[in-house]
Amino acid sequence: MRNALAIARRVLSQFAHDKRTLALLFVAPVVVLWLLSVLLGADAYEPRLATVDLPASFQTALDEQDARITDTNQAEAERLLRANEADAVLRMRDDTTLEIWAEGSDSTKTAAAANVVAKALSEAQKDAADEMKADVEERTTAIEDVLVAQGAKGGPLADELDSFDFDMADYLPVQDVETTYLHGTEDWKMFDFYGPVFIGIFVFVFVFLTSGMSLVNERGAGTMTRFLATPVKPVQILGGYTLGFGLLALVQAAVILFIALTFIGFPNEGAVWLVTLLVVSMALASVTLGLLVSGLAKSGFQVIQLMLLFVVPQILLSGLFDLSSAPEWMQVLGQCFPITYGVDALRAVMLRGADFASVGIDLAVIWGFIALFFALAALKFRKKRVRG
After folding, report:
1. How many CB atoms lie within 10 A of CB 314?
2. Residue 230 DSSP symbol
3. Phi, psi for 223 (deg, rounded to 5)
4. Interatomic CA distance for residues 95 and 211, integer angstroms
5. Which residues on neighbouring strands pair with residue 49, listed in sequence order?
6. pLDDT tens for residues 108-139?
7. pLDDT of residue 361
8. Is 388 helix (H, G, I), strand (E, B) or coil?
């Protein structure tokens, strides 16, 4: 028992003298838990619906739902849907049939839109039933008045009875509903939407861990010190590591995509080469971030802790959770990370069939992050050489 206590004291003493590890043990989990509390505590998602010339009673019922309704014309509604600024377009195909044209790439948002429409239809049916009931009561009162005034014979009463014919369909603003999809099908599940997110996140996380731990091991073995003592420039050192890990990332991306598309069955409406380019770009961003952050770690254990601080918040704000109902500052913060742009581009290509021009801005931003991380890492290496 005494020996066990001595070992325990030694472990605690090591942590007490390692201020960096001690801080990461408490700061990183608190930051992650706080972000999760804000994300999961946000209001429920309100679907975005574009409506075109709907019956007044049904439009009124929709306006009373928890949704963002835009009453517009056909051309503008189609533009909103194709730009992913609306989750569904509602329009009347004929006098009795409502057509729901769903964006379709997010099953959760599509389900939310369908739920709002169902509630509005239910309200419209109740209003129609109340209206028919009022008409029946009014006609019944009229017949009773005739009975009292003239008895059960002849003229006016017979006319009233002949017109005593009510059909619920005459009161309903919508009798049939048909749903079509701009992207995907009704068979798409929630996992189909999150597939591109998981591909990007897994590549980013594993490349970050691999590159970060490798650099820590290189430094521990003295390899990095020997590099810095040679005429090799810091940019060349970092370039070599980036190129090496980049080639490994290319192989990793090819294997992951092959398994995901062939065996798991992730949907892909776009070009495979473009998906590969996006995944490799995210991997290079992860490599350069690992080069930058690894200088803060003294061991592989600290690399994992730093991942909680530098990578996990990016994952939470990347689109894994819907941020449309989150605080505005959190939405802005989410746009400051490379994972966000990679996930958005992967979804656009794999779920909506976007081409290179459509995701060009996202790619440019990712490569901007790569250049920034690489430049900061090179500057840090240069300072180490000067101090050495």
Report:
1. 24
2. S
3. -65, -45
4. 62
5. 69, 88
6. 888 888 888 888 888 877 776 666 666 666 66
7. 94
8. coil
DSSP strand pairing (97-102 vs 88-92): antiparallel
Q: Would you put residue 222 in left (φ > 0), alpha (ψ -120 to 50) or beta?
A: left
Helical spans, DSSP H, in 221-359: 223-228, 234-259, 272-293, 300-310, 312-315, 328-334, 338-352
Give the chain's mean pLDDT. Answer: 79
Tell me how far apart the alpha carbons of residues 118 and 287 are, in angstroms, rounded to a whole number. 48
> Model-level pTM?
0.78
Burial 232-271 (b: 16+ CB within 10 A, else e): eebeebbeebbeebbeebbebbeebbeebbeeeebbbebe
Please report the pLDDT score of residue 386 as a whole number.
46
Q: How many CB atoms lie within 10 A of CB 194?
A: 19
Say yes or no to pLDDT of 160 above 60: no
- 196, 339 contact by CB (below 8 A): no
Would the pLDDT of 369 be above 90? Answer: yes
In this structure, how many other beta carbons lie within 10 angstroms of the beta carbon of residue 118?
Answer: 12
pLDDT digits (tens, 9 = 90+) for 40-60: 776 778 889 898 888 888 888
Q: Give the pLDDT score at 339.
A: 92
In angstroms, the CA 33 to CA 313 distance is: 10
DSSP 68-114: EEEE--HHHHHHHHHTTS-SEEEEESSSSEEEEEE--S-HHHHHHHH
**Integer CA distances (angstroms), 286 to 210, 307, 371, in order:** 10, 11, 12
Q: For 210-223, what is each residue's pLDDT tens digit?
A: 888 877 777 766 66
Q: How far is 134 from 180, CA to CA, in rounded Å?
A: 36
Report all structural domains of the chain as residue ranges with CATH numbers, in order of start: 1-40+189-386 (no CATH), 48-170 (3.40.190)
Residue found under tokens 């742009």: 341
Q: How far apart are the first and last CA of the chain?
A: 46
At 253, the amino acid letter reads: A
The DSSP letter of residue 287 is: H
CA distance 328 to 20: 32
For residue 70, list its beta bridge partners. 50
Residues 226 and 203: their CA atoms lie apart, in Å, by 30
Distances from the Cα of 77 to the Cαs of 40, 71, 203, 308, in angstroms? Answer: 31, 8, 37, 42
